[in-house]
Specification:
This protein is an alpha+beta fold. Among the domains are: about 130 residues, no CATH class; about 100 residues. The protein contains five helices and 25 strands. The chain has a 25-stranded antiparallel beta sheet that branches. Helix 2 runs antiparallel to helix 3.
Length: about 425
Amino acid sequence: MRRTWWAVIVVAVLGVVGYLGALAYASHVFEQELTRTLEALRKEGQWQVERQEVEQGWFHSQGRLHLSPVGDDRWQAEIPYDARHGVLSTRLSGAIQGVLAEDADSASPRMLFGDVLPSAEPRWTATFHTLDRQAEGRLDVAGFELSRNGAQLTFTGAEFTAEGRVGDVAVQGQIAPMRWQYDRGELATGPVHLNSRYQASEDYYYHQRNELILNRLDYQASQRPPVTLTGLRYSDETRLDEQLRLDISLSLEQAQVGSEPLLTGRVDASLDRIDGQAARHLAREVEAVIEEQGGDLSGLDEAGQRRLLQRLEPAILAMLEDSPRFILEGATLSSPLFGVDTRGHGELIFSGRDVDALNVLDLLDSDAPAWRERLNGRFTWNGIPPLVALQLGLPVSTRELVISIEAGRVRINDRPLPSLL
């Protein structure tokens, strides 16, 4: 019987020791990842980051983060946090407060939420998973009404969620409808949806996707018909590996004036053939310059800006060696009201041959002929309106527009135009 009790006691002690050990490990991992995240922010060179009032324990940790943009002391963000450690995860909660610097009208710093905006501080919660070091969180922004000089802004709130780890973060959000009213009109927008995914490594390989969707925008003014936009969507994707490539898309489902459909449209474009290794080298050079300047380049005078460009010139020119290309993959514009249905596509190429012969400082000049002469391309537009043809000096019956660029000189339907730049 005594042996049984001893066995129970030993198992209980081992369980308690194991539990405390797991909590200690969870606290250590949380502290390690938080330090790593803050260091990554500092390394970007855009933020000054401080951590104060830190208390670290096995069961509970807390502290206060201070973030301010480099070179701008007009405001800073304060983020108090409270962390409760568990065996497999740490649960966090806190708030975000913006602190505005003193000005001529105030003897002490003002709080963005409370003093400037009649709203409670945004609240956030998060969960950090100890084993895989993933995290997910949520931010809630309360609504408010603000009245100034006869105008009123009504903001009904926003919510954002994020998940991932350092170097791989996905963010989603929704901004509820907003309304701005003034004596001569009213503007209402929303809801707005956003989606973003950012992936990066320490050696400057990264992939980022962003999407912003505005469901509806209404504008009403006295003695004018109302204007309504629906389905406004913007997206971009940037990838840096062997090359740097950027894809952009912008579309409008419909614009209305009164009850009449005005127009719809879409544009898809991309920029590619930029040397990725040179782009990474340029990023490192810029980072080094920012560090040398104490994190702020705004104080550079004209001579300092020229010296900076000369320093970065080898990396800038190396990025152009593969002959960067801008592609207008497709553009459409339709307007039943004006009888317009036009579509276009084409590309523009910058020649990278003997690129070392160029001087980056020439770009500061108004003409820069050595750079302009390296531009070649062709764009085709079908269904152009007669008014556009007339304004370009073409026959009214013209329905196709061919824009050709040869050595920086533009021709439209084989007719010369002034220099492009």
